[in-house]
Amino acid sequence: MDNVASGEWVVLSLGSNCGDREKNVAEAMEWLSRQLTDFEASAIYETPPVGHSGPFYMNAVAIGRWTQTVEKLDSLCKDYEVRNGRDLKARARNEVPVDIDIVISSGKILRPKDYRCDFFRIGFRQLSRKQYYGESVF
After folding, report:
1. Is 88 helix (H, G, I), strand (E, B) or coil?
2. Per-residue pLDDT, 26
3. CA-to-CA distance for 33 and 25, rounded, in angstroms?
């Protein structure tokens, strides 16, 4: 992953398939809103699992500006996931209390598979219709 220059746009995918799924995603969005500037998020919506069986997910997409490296943001997101129950036992049961992935950074698609999936595309379409300070984000 490349360094993110001061104030570069990042687009993240959020999801949860266990517990209070909608609350898990909403709390992750609230946490992200304190990490990023110019934060905005899609509505929360439901999608089927991709690549495994299990319960449906609640998902959302968030966008904001990040002033440090994308690696630092990724590390913070993974730490948040672990603090909120995403451990080896949960993974073994295909339970995802919360998942936060950086899909786009500085206009580059970092996770092409996620970018093509409905769990990302639905929320991304909601946000990509908006102008962000006259800049091209995508």
Report:
1. helix
2. 98
3. 12
Helix (H) / strand (E) containing 3? none
In single-letter form, the type of residue at position 101 comes to D
Write the DSSP symbol of residue 56. P
119: helix, strand or coil: helix
Q: Give the pLDDT of residue 130.
A: 59
Q: What pTM value is reported for the model?
A: 0.88
Distance CA 107, CA 89 (A): 35
Q: Indicate the DSSP class of residue 135.
A: B
Name the burial class of residue 63, with classes exposed (0-12), middle (13-18) and buried (19+) by CB atoms within 10 angstroms of its CB.
buried
Q: State the 10-residue block means of pLDDT for the chain, 138 residues long.
A: 62 97 98 96 96 90 96 98 93 92 94 96 85 52
* 127 CB neighbour count, 10 Å cutoff: 18
Length of the chain: 138
What are the backbone dihedrals phi and psi of residue 108, each rounded to the nearest 5 degrees, phi first?
-105, 135
Among 71, 67, 74, smallest CA distance to 99 is for: 74
